[in-house]
Structure formats: C-alpha cells, structure tokens
C-alpha cells in the first residue's frame, strides 16, 4: 500500500509539472505572438516623406562638429556651450510635426551659437557651393555662412521630428516642395538672415555665370533672404564675383540681365556695386583642375620667348 500510495503521488506530481510546463509554454507563445503583432503598430506611425531622413547619430555629429569648431578651428571665439547648443537644436524640432516649424523655434539656438563676423569678410554665394568653399579654405580673409559655427554644424546634414516616439524621424524628412516650413529650410532661412544682418563694410557674393536661368535668381536664398537683410547703415559696397565654368557655358556676364537687376536692387539700397567677370583669384582655383585650358594660361599670348 505505501508503495502504491508513493507511486500515485509521483504520478500526481508529474501531471502537475507537465501541466505547469504546458501553461508556461503557452504563455511564452502568447507573449511572442502579441509582441510580433504589436510591433508594426508601434513604429509605422512615423510620417512618410520624400527626402532623406535625419542623419544617423545626429547628436554625436552636432556635438563633434561644435567642439571641433570652438576648440580646434576657431579657439579665439572663446567658450560656447556645445551641450546647450545641441539641446536647443533638438528642442527646435523634436516631437513636432516637420511641416510646422517656425523661425521662433530656432531663436534660442541662434542666440547660443552666434559669434561676431569681422567687417569686409562676409562672402555670400548662390549655385557655387563647391568653388566658394574651396576658396574660403584657401583664403581666410573671407567667410561664408558655412564657415561660421551655425553653418558648419548643419552643413550637409538632415534632421526632422515626428509627433510619435522617439520624436526624431530617421527614415524620411519633408522636401521643400512638400512643405516650406520644414526644419531644415526654416533653419537655413533664419541662419542666412542672421548672417546677412551681421555683414558690414565691403561684402562679396560669388555667383554662377554658367546657369542658363541667370546668375541672380529671385527664388534663391541670396535674393529672397540675404539681399533684403543687408543693413544699409553697416554695408558700404557689394562686390559681385561672377564665375563661369572653365570651358563654359558662358551663360551670363556682368552686363547680363539678372546681374543688372541685382545691381539696381543693391544701388537702391545705396551700396556701391562692383561686378567682376571671372574674378582672377578664384579662377586660379578653378584652374587647379583645368591647368591646360587656355583660360588658365598664366600669361597672355607672347612670342618673346620661343
Ligand atoms: C540621401 O542619401 C543618399 C545616400 O546616403 C545620398 O547619396 C544622397 O545624396 C542624399 N540626398 C540628399 C538630398 O541629401
Ligand atoms: C549611432 O547610431 C546607431 C543607429 O543608427 C546606434 O546603433 C549607435 O549606438 C549610435 N552610436 C552612438 C555612439 O551613439
Ligand atoms: C574694409 O574695407 C574698406 C575699403 O577697402 C577699408 O577702408 C576698411 O578699413 C576695411 N575695414 C576693415 C575692418 O578691414
Ligand atoms: C554652376 O552651376 C552648375 C550647375 O549647377 C555646376 O555644375 C557648376 O559647377 C557651377 N559652377 C561654378 C563655378 O560653381
Ligand atoms: C559638406 O560636404 C562638402 C562636399 O562634400 C565638404 O567639402 C564639406 O567639408 C562638408 N562639410 C562638413 C562640415 O563636413
Ligand atoms: C592666344 O593664342 C591662341 C592660339 O594662337 C588664340 O586662339 C587666342 O585667341 C590668343 N589669345 C589672346 C588673348 O590673344
């Protein structure tokens, strides 16, 4: 009897154990199924857009560029709080609909990151992105927006928010054609306005004489933001450097229509205007890549030394 009782208890225990195990397995299956089903409901709430999403590791990139700028490139500018600068950039767009950004969103960032720009150094540009920055790298007498802390941090970078967690959209961001008030476009408008307002003395602009639609286009940031915000009390002269590609096309020269239009706008603001076709110091830089072209000959034709 005691033997039988013992084996009956053993059987009961075995049944109990098997029962618990089955329940556990079922529970695990239910949890796994629920999480697999639940997952697609959590993240695709992010809005979908046509442009590239936020640059990966945005905070590290912004912080790294900020510290590089203030510690290595321009230590003479003195202390800036890079951590606060990143926070204020983030606060401008995180968790917001990326079509509802306003200039006010960037005001704290503008105040934290701005620094003085010496007179005579401001260099504006339109459609000469590569050439103008090669030039400011080789001649520190001139500064573009991308050579200031604000412009340097944001150069070549994308960012936008989204109302759902984690508040930043790394998949896609709106193009300007989808909505004008997107984080990037508003930032560049605000930063360009501030850069133009800071200009004083002689300012220069490098335009592209190989653009068929004209070197000065009314839709450009230069025309629609920068020219309008030059301060007549501070700016005295505007020097236009009209650069054509080596070997053409030669779409516009200083006597061209869009340049005449620009000149009249600037002269109305009482600036003295000088336009130079293929400003030689910049052309020499173009010639680095086209040394054999006739436009790049160091001397004009001479038969004196055969
Ligand atoms: C988007 O990202 C791709 C791949 O990283 C890059 O080649 C392209 O230039 C980017 N487009 C824009 C508009 O930044
Ligand atoms: C950079 O971003 C990736 C995801 O895109 C992430 O896995 C990684 O941890 C980030 N690196 C740092 C240092 O934050
Ligand atoms: C700016 O240029 C003007 C005209 O060339 C010159 O008179 C002035 O001294 C310059 N200012 C500075 C700060 O270099
Ligand atoms: C002018 O614009 C064209 C087309 O965008 C570009 O390929 C060229 O490099 C530009 N030229 C200069 C001098 O920047
Ligand atoms: C942005 O891209 C251009 C062209 O590739 C490059 O010359 C420049 O250094 C980049 N800017 C920064 C801040 O890395
Ligand atoms: C220089 O000589 C070349 C070939 O002899 C000629 O095509 C060109 O027009 C000349 N340029 C000038 C500025 O005289």
Characteristics of this structure?
alpha/beta; two-stranded antiparallel sheet; ADP Ribosyl Cyclase, Chain A, domain 1; four-stranded parallel beta sheet; 306 residues; binds 2-acetamido-2-deoxy-beta-D-glucopyranose; elongated; 45% helix
CATH superfamily: ADP Ribosyl Cyclase, Chain A, domain 1
Total E-strand runs: 6
Low-confidence stretches: none
Separation, N- and C-terminal Cα atoms: 127 Å
Rg on CA atoms, Å: 30 Å
The best one-word shape is: elongated
Name the ligand types: 2-acetamido-2-deoxy-beta-D-glucopyranose
Q: Assign the CATH topology.
A: ADP Ribosyl Cyclase, Chain A, domain 1
Mean model confidence by pLDDT: 91
Give the CATH class: Mainly Alpha
Q: How many domains in all?
A: 1
| Main sheet strand line-up | 2-4-5-6
Structural class: alpha/beta
Strand content: 5-15%
SSE order: HEHHHEHHEHEHEHEH
CATH architecture term: Up-down Bundle
Q: Please give the largest β-sheet.
A: 4 strands, parallel
How many helical stretches?
A: 10
- How is the quaternary structure best described? single chain
Helix-residue proportion: 40-55%
Protein architecture, described:
The chain has a single domain, classed as ADP Ribosyl Cyclase, Chain A, domain 1, CATH 1.20.82.10. Helices cover 45% and strands 10% of the residues. The chain is built from 10 helices and 6 strands. The chain has helices spanning 2-42, 58-73, 82-93, 107-113, 129-138, 149-154, 183-198, 221-229, 257-268, 280-287; strands at residues 51-52, 123-126, 172-173, 201-208, 235-243, 272-277. A 4-stranded parallel β-sheet has the order 2-4-5-6, with helices on both faces. Strands 1-3 form a two-stranded antiparallel sheet. Helix 3 packs antiparallel against helix 4 (107-113) and helix 7 (183-198) packs parallel to helix 8. The mean pLDDT is 91. The structure holds 2-acetamido-2-deoxy-beta-D-glucopyranose (NAG) (6 copies). One 2-acetamido-2-deoxy-beta-D-glucopyranose (NAG) binds at residues 56-57, 60.
């Amino acid at each position: 009897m005691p033997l039988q009782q013992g084996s009956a208890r053993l059987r009961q225990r075995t049944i109990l154990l098997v029962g618990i195990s089955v329940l556990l397995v079922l529970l695990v299956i239910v949890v796994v199924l629920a999480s697999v089903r639940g997952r697609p409901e959590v993240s695709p709430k992010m809005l979908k857009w046509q442009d590239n999403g936020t640059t990966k590791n945005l905070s590290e990139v912004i912080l790294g560029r900020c510290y590089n700028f203030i510690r290595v490139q321009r230590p003479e500018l003195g202390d800036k709080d890079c951590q606060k600068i990143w926070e204020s950039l983030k606060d401008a767009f995180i968790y917001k609909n990326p079509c509802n950004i306003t200039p006010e969103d960037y005001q704290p960032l503008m105040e934290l990151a701005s620094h003085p720009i010496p007179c005579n150094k401001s260099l504006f540009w339109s459609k000469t992105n590569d050439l103008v920055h090669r030039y400011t790298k080789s001649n520190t007498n001139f500064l573009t927006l991308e050579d200031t802390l604000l412009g340097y941090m944001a150069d070549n970078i994308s960012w936008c928010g989204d109302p759902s967690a984690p508040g930043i959209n790394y998949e896609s961001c709106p193009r300007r054609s989808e909505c004008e008030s997107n984080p990037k476009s508003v930032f560049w408008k605000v930063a360009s306005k501030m850069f133009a307002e800071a200009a004083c003395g002689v300012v220069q602009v490098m335009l592209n004489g190989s653009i068929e639609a004209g070197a000065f286009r009314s839709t450009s940031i230069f025309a629609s933001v920068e020219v309008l915000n030059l301060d007549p009390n501070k700016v005295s002269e505007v020097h236009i450097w009209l650069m054509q590609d080596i070997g053409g096309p030669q779409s516009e020269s200083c006597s061209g229509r869009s340049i005449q239009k620009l000149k009249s706008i600037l002269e109305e603001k009482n600036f003295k205007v000088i336009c130079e076709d293929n400003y030689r110091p910049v052309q020499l830089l173009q010639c680095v890549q086209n040394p054999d072209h006739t436009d790049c000959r160091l001397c004009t034709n001479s038969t004196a030394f055969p």
